[in-house]
Every structure is written in C-alpha cells, then in structure tokens.
Predict the structure of Aliphatic sulfonates ABC transporter ATP-binding protein.
Amino acid sequence: MITFSGVSKRFGGTVVLDGLDLTVAEGEFVAVIGRSGTGKSTLLRIVAGLEQPDDGTVESPDEVAVAFQEPRLMPWLKVGDNVALGLRDQARAVQALAEVGLEDKAGAWPLQLSGGQAQRASLARALARRPRVLLLDEPFGALDALTKLEMQSLVGGLWRDHGWTVVMVTHDVDEAVRLADRVIVLGDGSIKLELTVPGRGPRRPDDPALAGLGQELLAALGVSV
Ligand SMILES: Nc1ncnc2c1ncn2[C@@H]1O[C@H](COP(=O)(O)OP(=O)(O)OP(=O)(O)O)[C@@H](O)[C@H]1O
C-alpha cells in the first residue's frame, strides 16, 4: 500500500531521512517510534504528500487521512460542521460521529468538548473521508492515561472494522506494541530496529507477551530503565 525506496530528505544541512526503505502492506498497522527529531513526522508528511523527498521514490494512494496530536478543529464551526467540512455527502459526517461515540455532540462547539472528545471528533473527520490509509501523528499524546487507553481501543477497533492501512507515530512504546502489527524504530535517517508484534491489536495493555517487546524497543531507543 505504501512503499518508500531509498528515500532521503534534508532540511538545510540536516539529513533527516537517509535512503529509507519501507513497505507497508494493505491493512497493516505500523507504529513508528524514535527519539525527538529523528524524522517521524517528516515520514508521515511525505506519505501524505505534504513534503517531497529529495531522493528516492514513494508510492502511496491518494485516499490518505491524517489525525494529529492537537485535534485542529475550527472553533467557529460546530462539531458536525467540522467533520462535514469539504464533504459532498453530509450523511458521512453523521455516521462518522456515531462511530466515535459523539452522535450527541454534532451541535456542540469545539470549545465545549473535553480533550478526549475533541480527539474523537478529529478522528471522525478523518474517517468521514473514507480513507484507505490513516496517518496518526502522536494522536493520544496530550490525553490523560485513562482516556488514552480508551482511545487506543477505539482506534484499534475501527482499524479492524474498516481494514485501513495505518501508520502511527508515537513516543509511547506501550501504545505501539498494544496496537501495531509491526513497530519501526527510526534513528540516524533509517530503520534501526523492526519488531513484529504477535497477535492482532488492540491487545490487552497487561498482555505479558508485550512487556519483553517494550523493553527491547526502549533499549533500541537508548533508554535504560
Ligand atoms: N519544514 C522544515 N524546515 C526545516 N526543518 C525541518 C522542517 N521539518 C522538520 N525539520 C527538521 O527535521 C528534523 C526532523 O523533524 P521531525 O518533525 O520529522 O522529527 P520527529 O521525529 O517527528 O520529532 P518529534 O518526536 O520531536 O516530533 C528536525 O531536526 C526538524 O527541526
């Protein structure tokens, strides 16, 4: 579904991606982790067509939707209108709000939503576009721990139902192994480590099989705990 072949990206004198090769299969959920500044968001922006690589080639479908850490809702539009913005078929917005459990908030203003609800609305806006690929850039980074677990279950369940291909950038090792089929650690412009997670997400957060994988990822990130 997504193929990066020898992709390099530089900003000024800084090499952010250095001949990166990556293939994401249709329906696969890939989590990308890495230290700050290792090019995770740049990778997502290239998939979304918001940045062009300096070298190499990228293949990805046109039907890509992105959800960011900040919900980025327009404060002057009601929640339903935010989700429906740019859509010809308004019924899709209603359906998407129902899928994220916000059917009763279509008439609310974004400022009347909690952080978790705003993130749900942002997700609804992405899924109303019926994407084939969903890109998530630290989508739950600003949420409290309990809301975060609920949102992970929601996104994992929607992923299963819709058969999306998902690429999610996260700093949270537990989140990566809970949701993804495969976790990629970025560093020095390329993939430092790639781990396949057994089973299918969303997994139970206390699944004992996940603890060892989390430790391995932390070690690859240079974190000693
Ligand atoms: N448009 C831009 N112009 C100049 N430099 C940029 C631009 N976008 C990113 N960079 C630089 O490229 C590097 C990688 O940025 P990127 O946001 O992809 O990293 P990241 O791994 O997502 O970081 P974080 O985990 O902190 O979000 C950083 O050094 C950043 O300053």
Observations:
- The chain has two domains: 27-53+131-225, 74-129.
- The mean pLDDT is 92.
- The radius of gyration is 17 Å.
- Helices lie at 40-47, 79-84, 91-99, 115-127, 145-162, 173-179, 208-220.
